[in-house]
Write a structure and sequence with these properties.
Its cofactor is pyridoxal 5'-phosphate. The chain has 389 residues and is of the alpha/beta class. It is built from twelve helices and 14 strands. The strands form four sheets. The chain has a seven-stranded mixed β-sheet, sandwiched between helices. A three-stranded antiparallel β-sheet has the order 9-10-14. A two-stranded parallel ribbon has the order 1-11.
Length: 389
Amino acid sequence: MSEVYLDNAATTPMAPEVIATMTKEMADSWGNASTGYSYGRHSKLVMENSRHLIAQSINADDNEIIFTSGGTESDNTAIIQTALTRQRLGKHIITTAIEHEAVLKPLHFLEQRGFEVTYLPVDENGEISLADFKAALRDDTILVTIMTGNNEVGSRMPIHEIGEILKDHQAWFHTDAVQAYGLLPIDVKRDHIDMLSTSAHKLNGPKMIGFLYRRDGISFPSFIKGGDQETKRRAGTENVPAIAAFAKAVELDSPEEKQRRQERYYHFKQKIVQGLRDNHIDFAVNGKLDPSGLNHVLSIWFKGISTYVMQTDLDLAGIAVSGGSACTAGSIEPSHVLTAMYGADSPRISQSIRISFGAMNTDEDIDKLIAAIVEIVAKLKRVKEEGKA
């Protein structure tokens, strides 16, 4: 097992308090929340108390929170059901070129069924232009789905400005906030957000639980067909222990804690960059160092060193990081995010790693990472020089 875990954008370890809550509710709240007798009523109460706490975290009303299996289901539900429900008003959708696959693949599905999707380009900081967005918006646009913050490079999208533009337009506004929910302050009313997706395992909660915020007045059929749970908006028996554990993770992630983590993660970023400079490592940051972005994500281009080699050597050193893209069977798929930012021919695409911090990381972890990178680069340089001899 890795001694240092720095892939928190992929998933986070559950907090001890979250584990304790989930374990307790597995014993106490096993009743079906849809039943009317005491076991079910107890589970229903735990679930609704959790719903209230979670709703407050984004300034939503309780009835606007729909529990799901996580970000992927929430994204699919919001995108596909909006398109199918509103196609009589138009078949045009706007998104960005750097969305998560949980957004891009449903959009590809819809394109095959006659919908038109505009993929907004991004600059080298991973940011869209509001001018491009305004130019893309049409009378027949029915949905805008733009992530709050990017999972590979940490860039932040102008969600408030987009919401202001759309507040008098027919298009519904959905944001994938899976990476941002545990770090940034979110206010769905202030930002005129119609739908928002989250996942508990990104903020030290359990896997396979999340929620879809759906503004009161937004209506479409349940994506999952079956029973009438979640007031007929999402079929399937609710996972009350996981819901309670999600609420505990949200409770621990107070506004003050969010700010504290953002500041600590930005300190980690600065420490890594300075450490690499001090050791004369040839690198560049993908995107920009900006304390207003998602500070838990740092993408670095190690010039001349393949992603696979750096990631593997760090793993051998007991440090877990990501290639920033899907890795299967030893092969790394090109990052569509870095491709959109720098072009398909950029060496960054095959020579970058993603480092992502979490609540349990320490300065000592960062020191170990820097030392390991310096050693790996030195070793690769020696091998290269010996090959020339």
